[in-house]
Amino acid sequence: MRVETVATTEGPVLTAEGPATRRRPRGSFGGTRLVSIVAVVLLFLFIFGPLLWLLVWAFVGVWHYPALLPQKWSLSWWRQVFNYPSLARSVELSFLFAPTVTALSAVICLPAAYAFARFRIPGRRALMIILFSVNAFPKIGLYITIATLFYALNLMGTFLGVVLIQLLGTIVFMTWIPTAAFAAVPRSLEEAARDVGASRLRTFFTVTLPLAAPGIFVAMVLAFLASLDEAQGTFLVGIPNYVTMPVQMYSLVSDYPPEAAAVFAVLLSVPSVVLMLLVRKHVMGGSLARGFQV
Amino acid sequence: MRFLRRLGQLLMVAPPILVIGVFVGFPIAISAIYTLGHLGGPNSAVSAIGLHQVSTKGLFTLKVYKDVFAERNFQASLVASVWVTVVSVAVVLVLSWAIALYAWRTRSRLGRALTALAVVPMFIPVVIASYSILQFFSYGGFVKTVASALGMPHFPTLGYSLQLVVIAEIWVSVPFGVLMISSGLGGIPPSAFEAARDVGASVVRATWKILVPMNLLPTVIVTCFTGISVLGSFTVPYLVGPTTPTLLGPEATETFQSFAEPQQAEVMAVALFGLSIIVAVPYIWATYRANRTSRAQAL
């Protein structure tokens, strides 16, 4: 480790970057270049390997172990999956539930997030931890009793029932992340707007909301994905009227060969990947991380 | 007027608390009563379909707990849940720190690419992640195929094993770890670390002695949240793991759906909840401590 450090100190001193007092350039991490390249390759393989492997399976005609590549390529499974009777319906349902759940979650949680960030709410921290801690109760334990409650309220097998069950998984981050986003808006900016005569409402919509928007956006995308992803509760409450994509995926995995499941998995990943590209910048920028430290 | 404003502020906070209270808090309370032997009232619908139930005329009975904890299957799943969680959390911590630290230290394009790469799983539905990981590591999968091409036809396959559950849990949890740790590191001036290195501390020592204490809260958050999510996970162990022993999530689901024993399933849920609360203790301690120091700094 030290060898490389010594070696680099003898290199040309980077004067453009500042005073020449820095003895180790930023680039040296104490490991060799080879080690980092191997690490990158392994990480790439670990993260993308399974996904790429599944992508290949979606175009397989014939593939017998231990051939490295399929013996025959084919698109026939795509036809099969598109002709699968309830597929279109499940895609449609998923994209009906996800926006509904996201919007409802935003209406319920965003005012609370603003209040948590700006007002002195008694027991604020305790309330926020309670919001989370109850979510640590295992889903199945919860669903058994929720089912009882839903039977009593006639919510089993209804649209509203599925919306409610999917909503539960979104409350925590729809409150936490926007709270951090609102709290990060400097009060001085709001006060400046108020000083030049802007009303409270106008200040909120022209100063506070635009600055908090990235965090809110990240929370909404996460809620959308959570709804799109939710299978266990939707299965329990929605069956047989509301079979969404992930619920469908469970039955496909057990009833169909890997080719069909692979095609369906690729289809199911498309919306997630598109959303990822949309919010990538904000997620990496720390909007999500801040949400867990309010 | 002031009173009205306070009331308005509390009303803004109320909706999410109410939703969680009615649809999570209330059911948890009902379940707890049910596991203690009270089958009537709100539990009468569940108890009508349940087998092997225990009821009490007294205040409460712990018989269901005793029965469930004496079961071999449950014990094995409990042990499996704990070790899968411990290993997954440990690997996620090391991996997240390594990636975040590399990106923070080098500020290179490679570092940023690594971070971006590690965040990808966050956007892949867990059902698909589990299924593709299963295909990748099981018989006829990538690992086995490459091993056999390299002349190792007897290379072990991991399909439906607890090891594969660990691998999949790591895959699913790494994005959160990397995001939290790198966000925390972003707020630390490089000079703190450079100074330690200048007086001769190794990278590992400088990290352990300087960076970890300065970045403690995000580290604790990653530990606790990953721990809780692995403990209570269902999809990953259900799709890639063995039937027995499995994690307590699928075990409780199986107990309810296949054996029609809701009371026993609820006992398992309560046990898992207890474990989760233990895991959450460091988080509550760390946020309390962080709040106290920031308040002290403000004074």
Describe this structure in words.
The complex is a heterodimer of chains A (294) and B (299). Chain A contains 14 helices and 2 strands, in the order ααββαααααααααααα. Chain A is mainly alpha-helical. Chain A has one domain (80-291): MetI-like (MetI-like fold, Orthogonal Bundle), CATH 1.10.3720.10. Chain A has a two-stranded antiparallel ribbon. In chain A, helix 4 (87-118) packs across helix 8 (171-183) and helix 6 runs parallel beside helix 11. By secondary structure, chain B is mainly α. Chain B folds into 2 domains: 1-70, no CATH class; 71-298, MetI-like (MetI-like fold). Chain B is 77% helix and 0% strand. In chain B, helix 4 (72-106) packs parallel to helix 8. The longest helix of chain B is centred in the C-terminal third of the chain and has 37 residues, at 262-298. Chain B is globular and about 70 Å long. The mean pLDDT of chain B is 88. Chains A and B meet through helix 2, helix 4, helix 5, helix 6 and helix 7 of A and helix 1, helix 4, helix 5, helix 6 and helix 7 of B.
Q: In short, what is this structure?
A:
The complex is a heterodimer of chains A (294) and B (299). Chain A has 294 residues and is mostly helical.
List the helices and strands and how they pair.
The complex is a heterodimer of chains A (294) and B (299).
Chain A: H1 2-9, H2 33-57, E1 60-62, E2 72-73, H3 76-83, H4 87-118, H5 124-133, H6 139-152, H7 159-168, H8 171-183, H9 187-195, H10 200-229, H11 232-238, H12 245-255, H13 258-284, H14 287-291
Antiparallel strand pairs in A: 1-2
Helix pairs in contact in A: 2-13, 3-13, 4-7, 4-8, 4-10, 6-11, 7-11, 8-10, 9-10, 10-13, 12-13
Chain B: H1 2-35, H2 44-49, H3 63-70, H4 72-106, H5 109-119, H6 126-137, H7 142-149, H8 162-186, H9 190-198, H10 203-214, H11 216-231, H12 235-240, H13 248-257, H14 262-298
